[in-house]
Write a structure and sequence with these properties.
210 residues; ten-stranded antiparallel beta sheet; 17% helix; 34% strand
């Protein structure tokens, strides 16, 4: 009998380490199904690529030529909160925070400096206003974020809408759009987990578990 390959053993160990998630009821809300879909990848990291970035920026693009990695962490209570750091090269300042609300989902962007302190522009995002689906959820900018963007002189961000899409085992998409035609999308290949990166900056004070 042939001995299992190292790659097979690694895959088996990875599967064994994944959290056991409660089964969803047949009538579960799309928000719950979406959270459950993301949570199937708890503990895993994936490489991504920019698939849409229009219009072209006249200034240097911070994502150009950088390794893009998402890491599903903060999975102590995956039905109510998930934290997904988004690393751009060696920059570990960004974390997407998904939380279950009474009427849907909330997406916030936690931005930290290398010493863990919050950036001046952080915790922005919005709540879903429609049920969405198990595959796609949209988050129009909320009032608190509009106030912060206004105070920071970020007029272009006042009409932001963020979206996320997931097909477990296939792909994850992060999207930013605006009515003026701005569209930014990063897609991650969920079929090929990679070695998890170091924790995001400030994770010792922001995460309950990983």
């Amino acid at each position: 009998m042939n001995r299992p390959s190292r790659r097979l053993l690694s895959c088996l160990l990875l599967v064994a380490a994944l959290p056991v998630l409660p089964a969803l009821a047949d009538d579960a809300a799309p928000a719950d199904r979406f959270m459950a879909a993301v949570a199937t990848h708890c503990g895993q990291a994936f490489a991504g690529r920019v698939v849409r970035n229009v219009p072209a920026s006249a200034t240097p693009d911070p994502f150009e030529g950088k390794a893009l990695v998402m890491h599903v962490r903060g999975c102590d209570a995956p039905a109510s909160e998930l934290r997904v750091p988004f690393h751009v090269g060696g920059d570990r300042s960004r974390t997407w925070v998904l939380t279950r609300q009474r009427d849907g989902l909330r997406l916030k962007h936690d931005h930290r400096h290398e010493d863990g302190t919050p950036d001046a522009v952080t915790h922005y995002g919005g709540d879903t206003v429609a049920a969405g689906t198990a595959v796609r959820q949209q988050f129009p900018v909320d009032a608190a974020s509009v106030a912060m963007f206004s105070a920071e002189g970020m007029a272009a961000s006042l009409q932001n809408t963020w979206a996320m899409e997931i097909e477990p085992g296939r792909r994850f998409l992060y999207e930013l759009s605006r009515p003026d035609g701005r569209l930014f999308q990063v897609e991650f290949d969920l079929s090929r987990p990679i070695t998890p990166p170091p924790p995001p900056w400030g994770s010792d004070t922001t995460e309950k578990g990983a």
